[in-house]
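Notes from the pairing session

We agreed to fold both candidates in a single pass and log them together. This is the raw record for the first candidate, unedited. Please don't reformat it; downstream parsing expects exactly this layout.

Candidate A
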Amino acid sequence: MSDFTAIEQSREAGFGDYVQLLKPRVMSLVVFTAMVGLVVAPQPVHPYVAFVSILLIALGGGASGALNMWYDADIDRVMRRTMGRPIPSGRVSEGEALGLGLGLSGLSCLMLGLAANWFAAAFLAFTIFFYVVIYTMWLKRLTPQNIVIGGAAGAFPPMIGWAVATGGVSVESILMFALIFMWTPPHFWALALFMKDDYSRAGVPMLTVTHGRAATRRHILVYTVLLVPVAFALAFSSIGGPVTLLAAVILNAMFLRGAWAIRQRDEAEAEADGYRIEKSFFKLSLAYLFAHFGALLVDASLRSFGVGGWGWL
């Protein structure tokens, strides 16, 4: 163990370590998609209620991250990508992470029920349960389809935002869910292509480990093809519009091109250039989702001026 590592592991946890437990980068996606779901809903929400609701949804997402880190501490210790996290590095104890996760889970769901409605609160509670129990504790270590089924947890936030505004579920909120759900496998499998050794050491049955990288490349292309009609269905829905349609055309063309390039690669070529295309596709996948939901926001803004959507054409 290097002197730097020893110092890093021995120092006391700071505020930033507890923030890291909440997976802030993942939380940013949760916050953004939940906000879009709330804003594009047909029923207006008081700005104060909207702000508090999004904050509570973010806390619920952070609680899920803390509970995930608590349960996955054993495999985080052997993966290069995660060994610097607060628990494996020794800065935060597993008990602290568990306490923080449970506390924030209860607080976020209770307060969301009081601030917005109990349907949205129950939806948030179910999302936390799904991510922690169904995905983290069960699917992640059981099946190579872990990220396919478990990806539903990350797709629920826009539905929760919609539920805050409407108190229910609709075709539009399901389409937002479906976009994230179908996007998740190619997004994570691209990461797995250049992080395969990590998952092998941790004993996580990611598709790259159980079926190999060639099969993973084929799966990325298949799910990308299946993603396209969902994106266009959302564009032509009541919350879509010309901007969302333009985004769907451009982004899906880029995504399909990237998935096809990944499919055509052999391992020797990919390894020789450091998985450059796979890493670029992973970065593109992040921009893909943010841009799609950003386009929904633009169309919603245009509708507020009477020029958005499809009715004005």
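Candidate B (folded immediately after A)
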Amino acid sequence: MSGRMTEATGTARTPEAERPQLSDAAAAYIRSMIMSGRWRPGDSVRPEVVGQALGISATPAREALHVLRVEGFLQLLPRRGFQVAPLTGQDVRDLFEAHALISGELAARAAVRVTPEDLAELEALHHELLAAAHRKDLALLEEKNHAFHRHINLVADARKITWVLGLTGRYIPTRFYSAIEGWPEATLHDHTGILAGLRAGDAEAARRAMHDHIANSGDLLARQFDRQAADDESSS
């Protein structure tokens, strides 16, 4: 029988069934490269290069490029192929502001639902963040940061809002947060305020702290885009 057997159903998983997952992974990778500033406006994006980076064929990578063209992250130019579309610091701030508003609502809901066990888990994650930062283990820092936010969203128990957060979260470069100048330090500081709001059961304090944390992260990233734009202008 062709294909692999899935653990959940025992049915064969065909290449056709896997391809949407591969194209989604390729799209996430490209978004992160663009949003982190590693790929700049005007840079060429070739499906075979993306496929090689992810260990997949060019077909799902090409599908991802077309998706990102619809989203406005890429342009398709005659005889030149796909290129990164213009992206400014203000664009980055706007994307993070949308994410911050939704994250703030989830934090507010979590503040009135959080249990002592939840707080203990969040405190433990925060201490692991501190330890990772002290060791300059930025990969672990990003992992624990993701777990910290994910636990708050789970406590909020608002499935539809969390789903919408996932839509905006696609544009947040989670894999490259640690490359943003000032992000590790800001994260450690901001999480302290979020925890204080949750401990107090103060929904509005948790909302403000979470909103400001996400918006601050966006501003740090946006400053990188602003500097890159200024450098490009001065060198032209």
